[in-house]
């Protein structure tokens, strides 16, 4: 899966079959997003219809059928896309390669928004199902949702390697249990013992509704039902993760996923209708329902109708649904940084996101995604219906543009064939190819038409219900991406190589900044001397008269091999006087390169980072503005860095027992112990020889 | 003022009299905190008494008198402190020098808490007075408070230099207008035309109250009234800002401040009592008051009683009160970073806070203070009464410990005199000195006793009302400070200099990391060559085959003077392969010093920082863990850095017109223009000579 590619598993490069995914593991990983959406799609569909009154539920089967048809078309369209672009770029790659920069950027923006909403919607729905099983948790709906997002982020930050197997079990439990529920429910209906939902008793106030409003209502319900399609495109992003033959396996998995989704969706909707689930957007609209209680989700109502309230299967289904929804949210945490990496590679995002194999990059991306998702959940109060309004837009934008890109792809192929000389064109293979192209063109044209229509419908019906936010976010993100792209391109022009520029200099000076005479300074001095600069000397900023006299005395006492210059600092600043001194030096001695040596502390605990290096970093930043300066950082590993890096800079008794000269392989008993303070005074003779050379 | 010292005003070092503060400017700056507390102290005092019923207001004059006595004693005590410790360290210095580390740290923690609460209480009271004048703003009380904190932070970040004069006017307006109000009110009372407050008509439910509870109530009211003392110590922190004679002027200012505070406090309280201000903690307890409206502050009630509702003087007083309170909050934004700097100097806080003259340090401190204050305001919903409960604790902790420290100071002096030989002891000067010491001892003993008693009272009466939070915060902060101190001390031991450690090496190698052949890389190559290392070569990490072939071709084409080595990276990481290569090199060639050259981009816009340098920084961090490595950063100033630094690294046509070789003094018309892209190809002959040498 994409995550395995991201984790840079060392075995990835050997590409052995054991670490690619067999179909039975690939299905749960890729399908969790698509299958989990059956948890909320029927609910949202019925909810919209119910706003017109109970009579409108009659439209439900037709709308569900339309959703199924759309699902079939989309699945078939993506089978074509997988075959044509097996590298795993998905809609983004298709759009960029076939339609150009701007459509590609729009798709990327839509996908980024989509990832955020996948997390928000999935977690909100998961929490909804949990609360449906344990209604006492209702006051903490938002807190639970935020907590789950944090949990997912933490788990991802730790990097679960065996995630593929962890995915498989809950997903199969979900498919199995919901499937069994549907079968049992159908049997009960067939035997005349139809299940009855808990909300069947509640009526709804019927509103007077015009004919135009009826059509609008049906379309709105259809739009909400289309949330069942979210997640279908996931397979197209992960073709490379399949075992060979990759394309065929991916296509098969996609088909299986589509089939299972259709079965679950239709089954759930059917049983919900027969058992009389009445689900309202505002539970207080249900006449007879005590709306201080939370309204149980459709899945909860169906499972309790089929199996009985608070029965074991009921809790199993609720738990499996919740877990599958959390897994769906989890897929976004892999997709988001992966997309960021691809965008960075193409220059549309900061280059920092492109370093594959670096766990830190993805940590940043995951944290950002988590924070935005938490923000969205808080603002929308984990209200599933409101979030769904935003969700579908981004999905159908990338569907539609992807399909249009595929149309371009096929027509280009057809045109190329048309340019061939006639004799080639009539060969068997070319005609077979042309047939394949035309078939692909037909399928994707159908897909593009349908998804574009749905996009228009969804936009019109949901714009005022919150979708305008997405229509604001996507252009803003696209604008930023194009801006970043232009910026990097301009910088490339700026730093373009030419043969005219040389950076020669008329000298080379090294200065070591000295505050107190301590070991890290001595190390810096020795490194500076090793480099054999034209001139090397130490520099101390005179901030306090006592300190200055002390350092001068120390310098003489330890017979340091280079001179120490004192720079006055009347205003008690550090960087200013040094910068001034460097400028004056270069005026007098011509344009030398001045290398400033600074010790840099490496530490073992995160909080130590707050206590070291900051002043040196500020001085370095200001000095780098001076013409001719370069900064050399000489690392000093404090004892604590042993904890995570396994070595330190200080030599302690016991180090010389280590085999290699200069390698401080410390016996394990010394680690995590108290820091050993060397007594002042001459060392024992056995130590002096070993400690005198330290590379 | 301390702020001027912090801003490192260039004229500070000349110490000329014009930039120290005359008393008439020092008073408003130092007194704003102390004087502004008269805005809420009488209110809080009456509020507590009223919980027992209207009859308890009879205690008010006695309690006010006790507060005045305490104020007098505290002012006199601080006069002594100023004289003994004119360097401006205040209570912290006194505690640390006389009582030791732990009391000093406790005082510092109390002061830090105090600063946060100064901001919160002052802003909450200011907003309260604004809402008293404009009751329509009541629903946005918390938002207004948060907004004002943000405003103060922003103003401080921009660094108002002429702040002293900005302080003076509103403070004098406040003193003047409130003074006039008191005088007018007293005249009205004297002429039998006493003002009547708007809340005089509202009664309060009287509770049955035991005698013990009466005493407790009186003490609680006294504790709240002591909030009038907050801010008195400010002068002791800024003695150095006064003109000469500094100590005398500071003492005089302190006395003036105390006198004005006493007059305003007693006058306000008197008129409030006579006019029948009834102020309740929960406005709904006022019988007859419509508590959907906000309860006007005491200041507002008195001023509207004296001058008439919504009259011009009423709005002037409310405005002046609000501004003075905001100025009081502002003083915390100078004190907090200054205290942080002092603590860092002593090793109790990260050293990064100790760089005086560096605006950035104080920016961080100000932002932290602002965020914490905003958090406190949100949690306490800008409720003044609740915040006051916390406020007084911290103030009286530092009062008390400071006074005890002064006792130690005097007794030490007395003991030293006692150790002198008898003939010296009886000289005039020594006897005069002894008298002064005894006088100081008496005054501070009295002060210590009284403030300690108040501390006990305040603790007992307010503990359950929220003060326990402060008793949690102060130990936690103290614990952290002691921990930091111990840590730095341990590190000092670790890196202590000794003569046995040498860091010689058997070679010196420079490697330049090359991604693409661009100008910053060429600059790094030239700087490396200038340093004349034993060996110098370039290194490219082979992440993509195309890129590798391209760079090798480019390297040959431009005839680069050093060899280019390609390092394989099968997992597409950067730092790992280089680290491995360095280790192998050192194994084969002995323990060389390996200097890694990395270009570092300097940019003009803050957002550009997100787009550069990150990958290089990560590589550097990982490489510094390898034994024998040091990192050299070679700066490249992108064109945008001209906007803030006035120079860039790239040479453009027009630069050679500049006088100095190597100084890119660009004509002003070129700045902020579009980036000039140099066309490929040989330059015009007039340019080539100048551009060939660039230091």
UniProtKB/TrEMBL annotation, chains A, B:
<keyword id="KW-0812">Transmembrane</keyword>
<feature type="transmembrane region" description="Helical">
    <location>
        <begin position="360"/>
        <end position="382"/>
    </location>
</feature>
<feature type="transmembrane region" description="Helical">
    <location>
        <begin position="139"/>
        <end position="157"/>
    </location>
</feature>
<keyword id="KW-1133">Transmembrane helix</keyword>
<feature type="transmembrane region" description="Helical">
    <location>
        <begin position="312"/>
        <end position="339"/>
    </location>
</feature>
<feature type="transmembrane region" description="Helical">
    <location>
        <begin position="388"/>
        <end position="407"/>
    </location>
</feature>
<feature type="transmembrane region" description="Helical">
    <location>
        <begin position="441"/>
        <end position="460"/>
    </location>
</feature>
<dbReference type="InterPro" id="IPR002293">
    <property type="entry name" value="AA/rel_permease1"/>
</dbReference>
<protein>
    <submittedName>
        <fullName>Amino acid/polyamine/organocation transporter (APC superfamily)</fullName>
    </submittedName>
</protein>
<feature type="transmembrane region" description="Helical">
    <location>
        <begin position="45"/>
        <end position="78"/>
    </location>
</feature>
<dbReference type="Pfam" id="PF13520">
    <property type="entry name" value="AA_permease_2"/>
</dbReference>
<dbReference type="GO" id="GO:0022857">
    <property type="term" value="F:transmembrane transporter activity"/>
</dbReference>
<feature type="transmembrane region" description="Helical">
    <location>
        <begin position="105"/>
        <end position="127"/>
    </location>
</feature>
<feature type="transmembrane region" description="Helical">
    <location>
        <begin position="169"/>
        <end position="189"/>
    </location>
</feature>
<feature type="transmembrane region" description="Helical">
    <location>
        <begin position="253"/>
        <end position="273"/>
    </location>
</feature>
<dbReference type="GO" id="GO:0016020">
    <property type="term" value="C:membrane"/>
</dbReference>
<keyword id="KW-0472">Membrane</keyword>
<feature type="transmembrane region" description="Helical">
    <location>
        <begin position="209"/>
        <end position="232"/>
    </location>
</feature>
<feature type="region of interest" description="Disordered">
    <location>
        <begin position="655"/>
        <end position="695"/>
    </location>
</feature>
<feature type="transmembrane region" description="Helical">
    <location>
        <begin position="466"/>
        <end position="488"/>
    </location>
</feature>
<dbReference type="InterPro" id="IPR053153">
    <property type="entry name" value="APC_K+_Transporter"/>
</dbReference>
């Amino acid at each position: 899966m994409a995550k395995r590619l991201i984790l840079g598993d060392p075995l990835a490069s050997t590409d052995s079959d054991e670490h690619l995914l067999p179909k039975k593991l690939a299905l749960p990983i890729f399908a969790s997003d698509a299958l989990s959406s059956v948890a909320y799609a029927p609910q949202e569909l019925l909810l919209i219809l119910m706003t017109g009154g109970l009579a409108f539920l009659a439209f439900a089967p037709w709308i569900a059928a339309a959703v199924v048809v759309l699902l079939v078309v989309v699945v078939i369209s993506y089978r074509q896309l997988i075959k044509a672009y097996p590298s795993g770029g998905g809609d983004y790659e298709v759009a960029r390669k076939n339609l150009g920069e701007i459509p590609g950027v729009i798709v990327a923006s839509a996908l980024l928004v989509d990832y955020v909403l996948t997390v928000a919607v999935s977690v909100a729905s998961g929490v909804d199902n949990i609360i449906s099983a344990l209604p006492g948790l209702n006051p903490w709906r938002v807190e639970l949702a935020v907590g789950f997002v944090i949990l997912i982020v933490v788990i991802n930050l730790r990097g679960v390697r065996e995630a593929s197997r962890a995915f498989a079990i809950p997903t199969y439990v979900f498919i199995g249990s919901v499937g069994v529920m549907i079968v049992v429910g159908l049997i009960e209906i067939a035997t005349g013992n139809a299940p009855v939902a808990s909300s069947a008793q509640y009526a709804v106030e019927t509103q007077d509704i015009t004919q135009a409003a009826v059509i609008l209502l049906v379309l709105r319900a259809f739009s909400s039902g289309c949330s069942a399609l979210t997640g279908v495109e996931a397979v197209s992003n992960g073709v490379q993760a399949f075992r060979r033959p990759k394309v065929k396996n991916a296509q098969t998995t996609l088909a299986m996923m589509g089939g299972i989704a259709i079965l679950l969706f239709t089954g759930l909707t059917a049983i919900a209708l027969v058992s009389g689930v009445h689900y309202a957007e505002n539970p207080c609209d249900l006449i007879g329902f005590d709306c201080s209680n939370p309204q149980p989700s459709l899945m909860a109502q169906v499972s309790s109708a089929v199996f009985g309230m608070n029965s074991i299967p009921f809790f199993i289904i609720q738990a499996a649904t919740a877990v599958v929804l959390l897994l769906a949210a989890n897929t976004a945490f892999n997709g988001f940084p992966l997309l960021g990496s691809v965008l960075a590679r193409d220059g549309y995002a900061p280059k920092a996101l492109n370093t594959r194999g670096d766990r830190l990059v993805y940590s940043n991306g995951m944290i950002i995604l988590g924070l935005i998702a938490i923000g969205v959940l808080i603002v929308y109060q984990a209200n599933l219906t409101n979030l769904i309004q935003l969700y579908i837009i981004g999905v159908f934008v990338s569907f539609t543009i992807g399909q249009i890109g595929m149309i371009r792809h096929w027509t280009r192929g057809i045109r190329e064939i048309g340019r061939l000389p006639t004799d080639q064109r009539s060969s068997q293979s070319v005609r077979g190819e042309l047939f394949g192209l035309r078939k692909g063109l037909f399928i994707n044209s159908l897909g593009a038409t349908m998804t574009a229509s749905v996009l228009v419908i969804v936009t019109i019906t949901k714009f005022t219900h919150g979708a305008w936010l997405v229509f604001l976010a996507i252009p803003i993100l696209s604008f930023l991406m194009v801006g970043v792209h232009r910026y990097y391109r301009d910088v490339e022009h700026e730093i373009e190589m030419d043969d005219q520029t040389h950076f020669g200099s008329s000298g080379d000076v090294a200065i070591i900044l000295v505050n107190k005479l301590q070991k890290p300074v001595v190390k810096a001095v020795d490194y500076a001397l090793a480099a054999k600069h034209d001139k090397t000397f130490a520099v101390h900023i005179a901030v306090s008269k006592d300190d200055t006299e002390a350092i001068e005395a120390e310098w003489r006492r330890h017979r340091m091999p280079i001179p120490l210059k004192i720079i006055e600092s009347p205003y008690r600043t550090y960087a200013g006087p040094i910068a001034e001194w460097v400028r004056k030096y270069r005026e007098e001695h011509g344009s030398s390169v001045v290398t400033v040596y600074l010790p840099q502390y490496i530490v073992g605990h995160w909080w130590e980072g707050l206590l070291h290096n900051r002043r040196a970093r500020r001085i370095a930043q200001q000095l780098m503005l001076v013409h001719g300066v370069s900064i050399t950082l000489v690392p000093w590993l404090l004892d604590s860095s042993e904890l995570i890096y396994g070595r330190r800079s200080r030599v302690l008794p016991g180090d010389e027992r280590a085999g290699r000269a200069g390698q401080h392989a410390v016996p394990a008993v010394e680690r995590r112990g108290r820091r050993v303070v060397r007594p002042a005074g001459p060392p024992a003779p056995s130590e002096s020889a070993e400690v005198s050379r330290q590379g």
